[in-house]
What we know:
Layout: E1 2-6, E2 9-13, H1 29-39, E3 53-56, H2 62-66, E4 73-76, H3 79-91, E5 100-103, E6 112-118, H4 123-133, E7 137-148, H5 154-163, E8 167-169, E9 176-181, E10 196-199, E11 211-214, H6 226-232, E12 243-247, H7 253-261, E13 266-271, H8 274-287, E14 293-298, E15 310-315, E16 320-321, E17 324-325, H9 328-340, E18 341-352, H10 357-365, E19 369-373, E20 377-383
Parallel strand pairs: 3-4, 3-6, 4-5, 6-7, 12-13, 12-15, 13-14, 15-18
Antiparallel strand pairs: 1-2, 7-9, 8-9, 10-11, 16-17, 18-20, 19-20
Helix pairs in contact: 4-5, 7-8, 9-10
Amino acid sequence: xxxxxxxxxxxxxxxxxxxxxxxxxxxxxxxxxxxxxxxxxxxxxxxxxxxxxxxxxxxxxxxxxxxxxxxxxxxxxxxxxxxxxxxxxxxxxxxxxxxxxxxxxxxxxxxxxxxxxxxxxxxxxxxxxxxxxxxxxxxxxxxxxxxxxxxxxxxxxxxxxxxxxxxxxxxxxxxxxxxxxxxxxxxxxxxxxxxxxxxxxxxxxxxxxxxxxxxxxxxxxxxxxxxxxxxxxxxxxxxxxxxxxxxxxxxxxxxxxxxxxxxxxxxxxxxxxxxxxxxxxxxxxxxxxxxxxxxxxxxxxxxxxxxxxxxxxxxxxxxxxxxxxxxxxxxxxxxxxxxxxxxxxxxxxxxxxxxxxxxxxxxxxxxxxxxxxxxxxxxxxxxxx
Length: 385
């Protein structure tokens, strides 16, 4: 836990879920720059935060918690970010109903007077968010965005300009930058190009030639990533009624392949991204027409799945948290899988060879087998004894 000092007081913040081994803070220089601008520090005029304040893409709740007195609406694609906000509000004695927490799949407020955007890593997610929010913005709406210099490009500014109105940027401070946008009085409204659909290649087994649905912001939304492609060619052949989990499901191609290969299986799709789970459900519904059962869960890995209730977990774990490289998500996924698997149940993992997942899996499960490998990727199998 760390303390952040703002114009509205000092607050204690932590990421979610809390991990004593985690060294990353719950905010960065872009959040600090954002809050200094809004609070009128360093000679800038304080931002008028009257009316409906909407905070988009707040990563761990630093912005929302700081501005809780203004009763903001938070919009995020991250379940973990949403849970971090809840925990940080409680940690600082803020009543839960002081803030409205929405996902990017929810309907936004009809009128937005102050729009605060934390620029996401995904340009596609930003594009989709701005299209969704544009009808709620009026000519007097205050629009400010923030991000690290590495996250803000000419294409970022062009999106704000094209969808909302004239846009300018600030000087960089601690490698962070602000964006100021003035909504057009007569904006041109256009529909979001998302979700995007594409046809899968011929070398992915039962999914060959089938269509995948991708909402904005999910991993490799415009094409099938090579790691998943390699995984699909190496999936286990299973039969009979069993419970399968596509953990970190993304667009759901892995779990959909498992359902097609074994119609008696019940497949659960889990991801911390609201858009990913929506994509997975759309992909599954379009391609699986049998009586196979499926569940779709936005959550913190397998934390809501009962102990010893699963037969097979399929996992392509992320190794980035925004701009930081970390194995925190993989560690939690592997530990959750071991707890949720029945005796004899299996965890299948695909990952870059250099990540060394085999070491952690052997330590956790007592065994780990290399199922398939190429110069870049490896598919591993661990069995719960």
